[in-house]
Structures are given as structure tokens and as C-alpha cells.
Amino acid sequence: EGSILGSLEFCTAALGSKLILVLGHTSCGAIKGATKAYIASKAGKAPQVSKALDALLNGLSVVAGKA
Fold first, then answer.
1. The model scores a pTM over 0.90
2. Of 29, 28, 61, which Cα lies nearest the Cα of 43?
3. pLDDT at 3 over 60
4. Residue 44 DSSP code
5. Is the predicted pLDDT of residue 9 greater than 80, yes or no?
6. Deepest of 32, 50, 56, 63, by most Cβ within 10 A of its Cβ?
7. Of the candidates 6, 36, 34, the residue with the CA atom closest to the CA atom of residue 21
8. What is the C-alpha separation between 31 and 22, in angstroms, rounded?
9. Which sign, positive or negative, has the C-alpha torsion 53, 56, 33, 17?
């Protein structure tokens, strides 16, 4: 959603935040997806992109590795 992305951009650019913590509930599918994409990228495997969320998670793998 645009408002969430805008808030994240503001906290990193204007406030200089170096870390964004994403929390999920028990059995959270979003956190599972992000973790799966990160582990796959760390193993040198590019996950198949079939949805916009997949592309976003792939892009976040680089950031997660630096955190």
C-alpha cells in the first residue's frame, strides 16, 4: 500500500533510520515468504517471481543480509 511505503521512505530518508523492524503474528505468511526468499537468495537461488510481492521480497533480501 502506498501510505505504508511512504512512511518507510520517510523514516529512512528524513529521519535517517538504519533499520526497519517488521513484525508478524504466529504463522504469519508474509514473514514466512520473506524468510524463504532471503534463504533462497543466500543459497544463490533466485526465487521465481510470479507476483508483485515476490519481486518485493527478492529486493529486500539484499537489505536483510546487511541488517
1. no
2. 61
3. yes
4. T
5. yes
6. 56
7. 34
8. 8
9. negative
Q: Crossing angle for the helix pair 52-66 and 29-42, nearest 10 degrees? A: 60
Region 28-33: mean pLDDT is 78
d(CA 37, CA 55): 10
Scan for cell 517471481, then name that residue: 49
CB neighbours of residue 61 within 10 Å: 17
C-alpha cell at 7: 512512511
Residues present in the chain in total: 67
- Supply 2's cell numbers: 502506498
Rg (CA), the chain: 13
Q: How many CB atoms lie within 10 A of CB 27?
A: 7
Alpha-carbon distances, residue 16 vs 2, 6, 11, 19 (angstroms): 20, 14, 6, 9
